[in-house]
Amino acid sequence: MSGIPPLRGREGEFTLIRELLAAARSGEGSVLVVRGRAGFGKTRLLQSALELAAALGLRTGAGGAEDGGQAVPMMALMSALFAGPGPLLDRAKLRELPSAPEQRFWLLQELAELLEAAALTGPLLICLDDLQWADPGTLAAVRSLPAQLAGLPVVWIVALRPDGTPGEALATVESLCRSGAHQLDLGPLGPEAVEQVLGDLLSAEADAELLGLAARADGNPFLLVELLRGLLDEGRLRFAAGRAQLTGGRLPLRLRESMQVRLGYRSAAAQQLAGVAAEMGATWDATRVRGRLRRVGVRRNLRPARPATGWAGLTDSELAVVRLVAAGQTNHQIATQLYLSPHTVSSHLRHVFAKLEIRSRVELVRLFVSREAAADTAVPAGADSADGDGRFPDRMNV
Q1: 133, 162 contact by CB (below 8 A)
Q2: What is the pLDDT of residues 235-261, one digit of tens each?
Q3: pTM of the predicted structure, to 2 decimals
Q4: Which residues are CB-contacts of 281 (< 8 A; sequence separation ≥ 6)?
Q5: Which CATH number is 11-185's, of 3.10.180.10, 3.30.450.40, 3.40.50.300, 3.40.50.10860?
Q6: Which of 30, 218, 223, 394 is most buried (most C-beta within 10 Å)?
Q7: For residue 77, which of 127, 29, 35, 144 has the smallest C-alpha distance?
Q8: d(C-alpha 184, C-alpha 34), whole Å
């Protein structure tokens, strides 16, 4: 299974990005708002834009907001401007910037001046992902900086989910759109793109049964890839004469876990309900699931307090990264598999190290292996048969 498959089903969207980058090389700036549901490929589209921009000679910066990360003011923006091997702005300038909340106006003015100086030396691309989780400072910057730098070759691309986005983030995006921002709404992949993804990932032609199963992902690229990886992990695909044939009829464990995480809930009750629904082969309709959660008293924004340290303090995203580190994958490989940026993977690992009070990947792997071994001894007999009837759901849309 190839590491980084081609971008499929987004040719029209990428054509617009290519045009905006070409215009930046001619001195024209722009703003692009990308909307898409969880798993629809926003992060992957941004990664492709960054790669193309670098190939065209633009200097690039990328940052992403994190769920629950609003306690760190302007983290997403500062990462885009000052992080990475070739930061857009001189890191030494960080120490000179105003840091108090009441000095935000002056901070934005100084950032505008620094970006103006950088843009005068060559075009820039700044990508901000998961704007729905951005803190007020980052949102204020997104409203202010593109307008102040409108006459310079700076391309801004911001991405967010259309559902469940807080009002301030929505107001920020609406402000950008009123000011003339371009807009892209990522929909599900069509049948042709789904077939291309299967061919790219399997290096083989999918048989009719596998194509039918893939169609049940409703064009969600993340779930489609997780489905294929789960089938491969469990040895459920047979390859012969250049064709991939599906064997067995149970939903891969990897996909069921991904569906739970993509619902965005942390409570035990919500995770249990999601798991039961998957095992029963229920239709996956996010609105209906959320309604059922509300009726049993689970609220999306009322989560149990998470401990500050220890394994219980890790988020679902951090645990996903830990598992792949333990499997021996590099940050770049993890980023590709989880559809994250390498910077976000590094950020997750820093949080993990702090919560577990360790300093290295070696210590992390040692702790994880010990924890998994302890958990294995506690699994009750017969637990591996808790898959219900094992049928695939009609849809896998979350």
Answers
A1: no
A2: 889 999 899 988 876 677 777 666 655
A3: 0.67
A4: 251, 388, 389, 391, 392, 393, 394
A5: 3.40.50.300
A6: 223
A7: 127
A8: 5
